[in-house]
Every structure is written in C-alpha cells, then in structure tokens.
Specification:
Helices cover about 5% and strands about 50% of the residues. By secondary structure, the protein is mainly beta. It has one domain (about 5-50). The chain starts with a helix and ends with a strand.
Length: about 55
C-alpha cells in the first residue's frame, strides 16, 4: 500500500503525498502540489527504525 491510499492533503489537492526530510533528522509527510504538511514529523532514532513523537 502507498501513502496515498491512507492519507490525503488537508487542502483537498488530491495530489501525491511524499515523505520529506526535515531539520533535526526528522521525517514528515507533505503534499507535492501545495506543500502542506500532512502529519506531525517523526524522529529518526536509528537508520532503520523510526518512532512517532507523542
């Protein structure tokens, strides 16, 4: 399954959602059409393991 099957842009763009790298080794989700953030970023703990900030 892809991100686009689970998430959609809050602005209603109906465009592709992609993961983006944010400052501080964090990863977030963003709409490629309007650049709007989809969810809160997650913190990269290890190279192959990520945890959601609570």
């Amino acid at each position: 399954m892809s991100l686009n099957e689970w998430l959609c842009c809050p602005a209603g763009c109906d465009a592709t959602i992609e993961a983006v790298t944010l400052p501080g080794s964090r990863i977030g989700l963003q709409c490629v059409a309007c650049g709007r953030k989809i969810e809160e970023p997650v913190e990269q703990v290890e190279e192959n393991y990520r945890t959601i900030e609570v």
